[in-house]
Amino acid sequence: MQRNFKKYNFLDGFKNGGASGKFIYGECGGSWCLARTLTDASGTSFAMSGLLDLKTTFENPKLSLGYRLGELTTDCPLGKRVKRFVRTNSTTLA
Question: What does the domain layout of the chain look like in residue ranges?
Answer without folding.
Answer: 2-93
